[in-house]
Design goal:
This is Putative non-heme bromoperoxidase BpoC. The protein is an alpha/beta fold. The protein is built from eleven helices and four strands.
Length: about 200
């Protein structure tokens, strides 16, 4: 996917670009800046990490086992798991806010496909933080305080590894914090890009 992203930027003739990535998109952006630094002038990475800690390694292994055994979770249980992984306690405890997400996740359960299984391998499997020390572009890393998929301490590690990295943590936000707290997230992205040379 890194090569695909590089090819897209080159085919559009728009390099260097400002890039924003969330979760898997952030992993791709990080690796793009390692292998093709000339394509990126600045980046915002949300809900990211540069390594797997023990809990995330266990979660990844468990998810791979679930996909590999072919078990399909009942739609309501799948929705439950996705809600717990995606949102903050604030959203989960707000009957109005969570009702829409319950309806959406229940209506469109995750289907196990080879592509979905491959997504598990897109996250850093080894400690990539040393490689990120060579990324020269300015980067804002946004962590979401209640994110259990990519917890803020792992995002802060990425920012700390980057020579021109900054870190911002958004409260009351889970893995999908950009949906939960769009105003502060969008404002932070715009402020950051306005502060760096294009």
């Amino acid at each position: 996917m890194v090569n695909d992203t590089a090819a897209l930027i080159e085919s559009l003739g728009i390099a260097p670009v400002r890039i924003v990535g969330v979760s898997m998109g952030a992993y791709i952006a990080q690796e793009l800046m390692v292998v093709r630094p000339e394509l990126v002038s600045a980046a915002v990475l949300m809900a990211t990490r540069g390594r797997l800690d023990r809990a995330r390694q266990f979660f990844r292994t468990a998810e791979a086992e679930l996909y590999d055994c072919g078990t399909q979770l009942p739609p309501a249980y799948d929705a439950r798991a996705r809600l717990l992984e995606s949102f903050s306690r604030k959203t989960l405890n707000d009957d109005t806010a969570v009702a829409d997400w319950i309806a959406m996740f229940s209506m469109w359960p995750v289907k196990q496909t080879p592509g979905l299984r491959c997504q598990l391998d897109c996250s850093p499997q080894t400690n990539r933080l040393p490689a990120y020390r060579n990324i020269a572009a300015p980067v804002l890393v946004i962590g979401f305080a209640d994110d259990i998929v990519t917890p803020p301490h792992l995002g802060r590690e990425v920012a700390d590894a980057l020579p021109n990295g900054r870190y911002l943590q958004i409260p009351d936000a889970g893995h999908l914090g950009f949906f939960e707290r769009p105003e502060p997230v969008n404002a932070a992205v715009l402020r950051f890009f306005a502060s760096v040379k294009a």
